Amino acid sequence: MGVAERREREREQRRARIIDAAERVFFRLGPLASTMDDVAVEAELSKGTLYLYFKNKDDLYLAIACRGLSRFVERAKAVGDTDSGYEQLRRVLEAQHRSALAHPEHLKTMLAWMASGFTASPDAPGYDEYLALVTTLMGRLVAIVERGTRDGSMRADLDPVQVVMHCWGGSMGLWMLVLNRDAIAARMPVPCDFDALVPSYAEMILRAVAPRPDKEAP
Amino acid sequence: MGVAERREREREQRRARIIDAAERVFFRLGPLASTMDDVAVEAELSKGTLYLYFKNKDDLYLAIACRGLSRFVERAKAVGDTDSGYEQLRRVLEAQHRSALAHPEHLKTMLAWMASGFTASPDAPGYDEYLALVTTLMGRLVAIVERGTRDGSMRADLDPVQVVMHCWGGSMGLWMLVLNRDAIAARMPVPCDFDALVPSYAEMILRAVAPRPDKEAP
Amino acid sequence: MGVAERREREREQRRARIIDAAERVFFRLGPLASTMDDVAVEAELSKGTLYLYFKNKDDLYLAIACRGLSRFVERAKAVGDTDSGYEQLRRVLEAQHRSALAHPEHLKTMLAWMASGFTASPDAPGYDEYLALVTTLMGRLVAIVERGTRDGSMRADLDPVQVVMHCWGGSMGLWMLVLNRDAIAARMPVPCDFDALVPSYAEMILRAVAPRPDKEAP
Amino acid sequence: MGVAERREREREQRRARIIDAAERVFFRLGPLASTMDDVAVEAELSKGTLYLYFKNKDDLYLAIACRGLSRFVERAKAVGDTDSGYEQLRRVLEAQHRSALAHPEHLKTMLAWMASGFTASPDAPGYDEYLALVTTLMGRLVAIVERGTRDGSMRADLDPVQVVMHCWGGSMGLWMLVLNRDAIAARMPVPCDFDALVPSYAEMILRAVAPRPDKEAP
DNA sequence: AATGAATGAGAGTTCATTCAT
DNA sequence: TATGAATGAACTCTCATTCAT
Question: What is the CA angle D53-D55-D60, rounded to 5?
Fold first, then answer.
């Protein structure tokens, strides 16, 4: 049985190395301009081999999305469960901002994928993994907000799901602007501090979910 | 002189009809999967004719973006300049939401374009028009927030440009979620009211820019 | 009848102006890269109008060839008929060299046409004119050599037609090299004086057709 | 190691077969009218496969030119180095004439290429090979004439490079006429023996480079 | 398991030519 | 006569995918 296990392990390693290569290529050229040939060359593998590990280009795309997402999820988990809901949300937002700053290309790739319509077909091998990640992340975030509404660190009348979507979707939209800062700056009539954009967005969110001040200090 | 005028008018009409057709195709297939052949068939024109009116596919893309944007701009202008800054912002957000609801396909196309990196080259014929629209819109929005900070209807410590970007970018991001509601809903562990997403986002923004209640009622 | 004549004259002028424009375009871009659109713009005429004066692009090509050829013919005629055959040949070669130096683009265009296989169809409107020119030129040159063989200024055993073809074809070939001097120079292991090429060729021809020296000076 | 070698050999064979097919097509239709589709059909290969072996149409063109040129070079080398310069030149000219007679289509293709301006870009894969061939050929011919001027079998005052260019360029020009014999014959006022054209040209060249008879027989 | 040659449909774009006005 | 919008076939080149070895 050692042989089968070693094989499986080797297979996983090889798969991971292909994703590594694909990430480098996708980040360099964008997912659209990247070809399977580019990925094969970068992975020092033949093109045919790629198809032994990934059903098609979209499946490879999905695997990259999973990676990015799992980084987010890990950060969200690392925040822990001891603080107040408000504090946890603050730290999650901060953690994600740091994560995005560290891997902006990941974000770019994911955005391109989202904006082009989430083409992953449910029968792609990586689909289940991806689904599990989203579910985990969303569940975690919703739980944080729910806790906040209960422990009094957030307004009680918030709809947790809506708040999570505001955090998630809004951040995505702002990152879309930040990642295209050059193109946008050229079109803005007034200067904009792009580096401050996401932090100030988090600030605004937090201010909006905070309980009314007059209720804070009776 | 009537002839030249009529020609010019007919040319504009034909151009508009091509954009109509392109919109339908782009919305049906997505801008990436759409081909110039598809557009030609939809417009009941030969492919060569397309190139009489648009330099290339990107230029056609840009024309669609311009159209969507100009709808936004018109709505923003229609809000008028008589109310308080806060009230104007509220109405602009509301107007844009209605606009987006009426033409979601536009938004989808624009998002795909933004996420793939704003490829418009400055020498495309429609570029200047596009630029002017963005500048107008951004200028208008910034002016509204500036007014709000001065007339006391918004917090005085707001950075108007940041607020505008939060409105703009955040809405985009949320619309990205709404437009992919089916794909996302399948991945959400808890149900989400997608129709409420953008309105509740506007509400949150407005709440965040409003002056502190304890300063409102001294 | 004055009206018809004026019309005919105007038609000729318009035709000539189109050829002017076509020459400029062909010389600038080469006959292959030149489009009927380019010619129409250069002629400040609509594309459709071009087809009122020329059956198709080849016919326009032919008209340009005629122009170049008629210049040659005029130079050949201007040499006169008073000198010895040898002297006339010398002066014709010299005249053609000067003509080619003055209008190298013409030569280039004609060469491209010849090398791509003389595509003129006999039913093109300008075909007869072109044919007449070639006939005239060849007849003139052959007559010169024939005279030379009879008046003792050339070797008596020459075949006049062969000599004319050597002059004509050989010059063409050498001009082909001269016109591509840059490309060729880059490929030559030894330097070459391209300016001397055609004159030295004429010299060689003349030396070869000259009577044996021992017969010159008895 | 046998596998890699076999692959390489097969690759060369396939490449050669594509050039075969391209030659047939180019000769039938002319290089301009020939399309990559035509070549693919003739080679019984898919269009995509062509691009695995040749970067683009020009590269395929270049490969054909190389082939024709290498035949010339081989003939020039086969002449050997034992005779007088004059005799070597005579035999080279003769050899090239036979070569051209055997493969006129090659000549036609090369002429079309030359006349359209030597478009080969230096980064085409076959460019170096082509360059080496031209350099070899030119060097060989110049060496022959130099030898002739030194060994007394040619006039001492000849410029070897000029003579070589006369041979090369002049022959090209005459072949251009021969290859278009039908079109030209229809335009000639007097009959012309096209088959004799190149041999009689070689004769003329040889006569012109030969030393003066009165110096030969003192 | 790995290869890489082969595929072939289809992309965007061009341009000589036509024809209704 | 002159126009120029419209055509549509043809072009070169790309690339995700397959399959014999």
Answer: 75
Choose the closest CB to D197 out of C162, C172, C176.
C162
Any domain includes D136: yes
Which residue segment(s) compose the domain that A25 sits in? 1-54
Confidence of residue C113 (pLDDT cuts 50, 70, 90): confident
Give residue-wise pLDDT tens across range C127-164. Answer: 778 878 888 888 899 999 999 999 999 999 999 999 99
Same domain, D112 and D153: yes
Q: Is A159 found in the same domain as A104?
A: yes
Quote the tokens at residue A99.
């994560």
User: DSSP 3-state assignment of C203?
Assistant: helix
The SS3 of residue D118 is coil
Q: In this complex, which residue's CA is closest to the C1' atom of nucleotide F10? A: D35
What gap in Å lies between CA D33 and CA D59, rounded to an integer? Answer: 16
Protein residues in reach of strand F (CB < 7 A)? A 33-37, 47-48, 51, 56-58; B 7, 11, 14, 45-49, 51-53; C 14, 45-49, 51-52; D 33-38, 47-48, 51, 56-58
Residue C8 has pLDDT above 80, yes or no: yes
Length of chain B in terms of residues written:
218
Rounded CA–C1' distance between D40 and E11, in angstroms: 19
Q: Note whether D126 and D24 are same-domain residues.
A: no
Q: Are residues A96 and A40 in the same domain?
A: no
Q: Under DSSP, is residue D30 helix (H, G, I), strand (E, B) or coil?
A: coil
Residues C107 and C136 in one domain: yes
Rounded to an integer, what distance in angstroms lies between the CA atom of residue A84 and that of residue A90? Answer: 10
Query: Which B residues between 25 and 54 have a beta carbon under 7 A from any strand E atom?
Result: 34-37, 47-48, 51
Residue nearest to nucleotide E18 (CA to C1'): C48
Q: From the Cβ of D150, is strand E under 7 Å away?
A: no
Q: Examine the domain organization and report whether C38 and C99 are in the same domain.
A: no
Q: How far apart are CA C17 and CA B213, in angstroms?
A: 81
Per-residue pLDDT, averaged over B163-189, amounts to: 87
Q: How many helices (H) and strands (E) does chain C have?
A: 11, 0
Q: Report the helix count and the strand count for chain D, using DSSP H and E.
A: 11, 0
In sequence order, the 6+-apart residues with CB closer than 8 A to the CB of D86 are D148, D153, D154, D206, D209, D210
Residues C24 and C130 in one domain: no
Closest CA to D103 of D128, D74, D80: D74
Q: Which residues in chain C are closer than 8 Å to D197, comparing Cβ atoms?
A: 162, 165-166, 169
Do B123 and B190 have their domain in common? yes
Q: Tell whether B169 is covered by a domain.
A: yes
pLDDT of residue A188: 79
Torsion sign (Cα): B192, B196, B198, B201: negative
Q: Of C190, C196, C214, which is closest to D213 when you measure between CB atoms?
A: C214
DSSP letter (8 states) at residue B22: H
Average pLDDT along chain A: 86
Burial label, D74 (beta-carbon count in 10 A; 0-12, 13-18, 19+): exposed
Contacts of D207 in chain C (CB under 8 A): 208
pTM of the model: 0.81
pLDDT tens by residue, B15-67: 999 999 999 998 888 777 889 999 999 999 999 999 999 988 888 888 888 88
The enclosing domain of C28 has a CATH number of: 1.10.10.60
| Residue that wins the pLDDT comparison between A169 and A115 | A169
Report how far residue D40's alpha carbon sits from residue D25's, in angstroms, rounded to the nearest whole number.
10
CA geometry: angle at A34 spanning A30 and A40, to 5°?
A: 135
For residue B187, what is the domain's CATH number?
1.10.357.10
User: How big is chain C, counted in residues?
Assistant: 218
Please name the nucleotide lying closest to A50, CA to C1'. E2
- Segment A184-203 mean pLDDT: 89
Q: Let me know: does A107 contact A173? Beta carbons within 8 Å.
A: no
